[in-house]
Amino acid sequence: MANIKLIALDMDGTLFDEQGKISKKDRETLQKVTDAGVAVAIATGRAYTELPIEMLYEVGVRYAITGNGSAVYRLPNRECVFSDCLDNEVLYAILEEIGQLDIYYDIYIEGTAYCPKSVCHNIRRMDMPTEIHEHVERTRIVVDDLIDFIKASGKQVEKATANFALLEDGTLLGREETAKILDKYPQVQYLSGGYHNWEFTKTGVTKGSGIRFLAEKLGVAMESTMACGDSQNDLAMLEAVEVAVAMGNAKEEVKQIADFISKTNNESGVAYAIEQLVFGENQ
What pLDDT, on a 0 to 100 scale, did the predictor assign at position 18? Predict the structure, then answer.
């Protein structure tokens, strides 16, 4: 059993159940492991302002690896301790092209999500549950022109996301076209964080690079790290850590690289993995 000192947890499909809640068992186990001196971080594709900060802080989470590794923040004061952003000039070129498609897209700057007014009609068309549509509507700041806004801000973009409407024939409107556009720019990389979307960051930026930075900052050897995840955007993180945990509900490609397959997110799979791998409890 590894001597775990840092645990990184994906949120959606991992720490959160299908209702977007953290189970009582997961809460109790996270408090127990942090009381034992283990650092716990969230590793998510979300922006900082999308996180339930109070809920996470209460269970001992002190760091958030956000935007698929593009920025690391300290909780609860939103202090950015690391960022590795997209090249804005490259991003402008991409946005010019995908802006011609009938899709939804947004960007993250310093932990806040922004979208152009022209794509808001697509939020309710995205292939995802209604509660996530509502979450997007609550958390995005709408601007008139996204490129002009970025230029006026003088800031760099952490991550961008594109989501697509599901047509009656089962195809996703604009998804293949968006991939072809992104393929033209070696300065960016993209993957699906869920619901068939495309999330793109600077090439080389992943949840794996985020946890490596955080481990170095905390003085923790990678041999003492553990991570739990379920989706494609968790693969790099699971490959980076010493102990890789796939949730019981994880995609098959995630399970294939895991050292341990836990219970599902609806069965307190995070707590089960920690009990087995950190505390050595046999159940």
Answer: 87
